[in-house]
Specification:
The chain has about 300 residues and is mainly α. The protein has a domain of about 210 residues. The protein has a two-stranded antiparallel ribbon.
């Protein structure tokens, strides 16, 4: 039982991180109606910015306080992601207002490859380290209940709590603020939103900035765990099945979908993997997403689209 709980907790914590990345997809889709394939590249680009500025700031300023260096690096990385959002809106999305969804989709693919190449040019292609002070020592729970207790990685626990807090704040932002309601209106109909005075260009800058901030937090967490390397964008793509499972327009769906996939892949790898030769954790999420596309294409919490003729 103790080992099962360890696996379950590990899956839940991984699921919260998947949910955090999936939020970036949901945010962009809700505001522009397009599936943003660039979110994985944004996570990598943001993590590279954080890692490299954390190296460069002590050289430029002579600061020795790691905490202060991390705060400054984070602030500069946020500024970089906001500037990136502004550039994307001005140079790409602003030129494609009211275009077909497939046109916007291809634009995000172009942004993906640009960010991959530009990030390598700007920040380098080595493996970089992010150290924001997350504790890495293990934590033992329920020692009196189970022999040896339940082992939990403190870094995973703190990361999951940070992801959960950010998810909750973004949910409140969308539901309770005027800007959040404007974002939902823009997602429903670009032309109608413009006709009632909602500035489409400003809304897109805001939503890409928020998605960039989410990508930065996700990149810092994953970079702290795995190191900042170009395979990080592939890890971020694990959020694709999450949004398919939960629904492209649903923030609660991103949360539930992430938890289901996080727990499902861990349990299946441990209990079914030995019978199939292992490797289930690699493809479990994508097979589950394929099943949902066949059975319930709108996802668990997505809105079912009915066309009347």
């Amino acid at each position: 039982m103790g080992f099962f709980l360890e696996t379950l907790f590990g899956g839940l914590m991984a699921g919260m991180l998947y949910s955090l990345i999936a939020l970036g997809f949901v945010l962009i889709f809700k505001a522009s109606g397009v599936f943003n394939f660039a979110q994985g590249a944004m996570v990598l680009f943001a993590a590279l910015a954080m890692a490299r500025f954390a190296e460069w700031i002590p050289r430029w300023t002579g600061l020795e306080s790691k905490w202060l260096v991390n705060v400054l690096a984070f602030a500069v990385a946020v500024a970089v992601m906001i500037a990136l959002a502004w550039a994307i809106e001005r140079l790409v999305l602003g030129k494609l207002v009211n275009q077909e969804g497939v046109t916007l989709l291809m634009a995000t693919l172009g942004i993906t490859y640009f960010l991959d190449g530009f990030g390598q040019t700007l920040f380098g292609s080595d493996i970089y380290k992010i150290d924001v002070g997350l504790p890495k020592d293990p934590l033992f729970l329920f020692e009196k209940v189970f022999q040896g207790g339940v082992l939990i990685n403190k870094e995973d626990l703190y990361a999951a709590l940070i992801a959960a807090a950010l998810v909750a704040l973004l949910s409140l932002f969308f539901q309770k603020t005027a800007t959040g309601r404007a974002l939902r209106a823009v997602a429903d109909d670009h032309q109608a939103a413009q006709s009632i005075g909602i500035p489409l260009n400003r809304i897109w800058v805001i939503v890409w900035s928020v998605a960039g901030f989410v990508a930065l937090v996700a990149g810092i967490i994953w970079g702290s765990k795995l190191g900042v390397q170009f395979s990080l964008s592939l890890v971020a793509l694990k959020a694709l099945p999450v949004v398919i499972l939960g629904g492209l327009t649903s923030i609660p769906g991103a949360i539930v979908g992430g938890l289901i996939i996080g727990v499902g892949e861990k349990l299946s790898e441990i209990y079914i993997g030995p019978m199939l030769g292992g490797g289930i954790e690699i493809w479990f999420a994508y097979v589950l997403a394929l099943v949902f596309l066949l059975v319930r294409p709108q996802g668990l919490f997505g809105e079912k689209i009915i066309d009347r003729v």
